[in-house]
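User: I'm curious whether this sequence folds into something compact or stays loose and floppy. Could you predict its structure so I can see for myself?
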Amino acid sequence: MANKPVAVIAGLGSGSGTGAAAARLLTKEGYAIALVARGADPLKALADEINAAGGTATPFPISSYNPTDINTPYATIRAYYQGQPIRDVQAVAQTNIEGPFAFSKNVIQAFQSNQVDEKGKRGSLIFTGATASVRGDVTTSAFSAGKHALRALSQSLAKEFGKQNIHVSHAIIDGGILTNASRERRNDPEWEQNEDVRLSPDGIEESYLHLINQSRSAWTWELYLRPAHEKW
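Assistant: Here's the prediction. I'll summarize afterward.
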């Protein structure tokens, strides 16, 4: 484990969405995985799955995404992986902007201690947004306000810390994602099987891996992802 770069994945939900897919994919790319989320049981289950498959994953459960609860596990993560570079982080943030702000501060401070790697970067920080990041609607006032704020945070960080070879990006997920929760809510086998009308967590993470591997001569700040038949 000592030679592996560390990927911190924050926000896992039930363990069937984009965060879990990121953990599985980055494990295959040779990363040690630090899992941060509310709910100890799904966190442990995913860590056990990755470790049983030959990867390296450690759960760091938190009770909430407020700044205090974010700062505590991140200090633990840095101590646990002492000597290993924390390179890549995905933040699947809640509506409240305070948690992502505190998380970003910890992440960027860790990146600043890294050497520039062969791709010309000290680390990658990816925020996951939604359609509400750029468009409000009649029923999304609070959610959209938080997502707009998260997008602005990611843009500001990208402009400020790109000059230090830290790559910050924001992905807008425009469409329904196939997860355990969406399966139960929709109860629509035709929707589940039709990749033209819904997003796959694995497909999203392939795009995230592309962001992580981008050369510093051509960085993406914002990425739109939607299924082929999504109306937009």
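Summary: Strands lie at 6-10, 32-38, 57-62, 86-91, 123-130, 166-173, 222-225. The chain has two domains: 6-80, 89-225.
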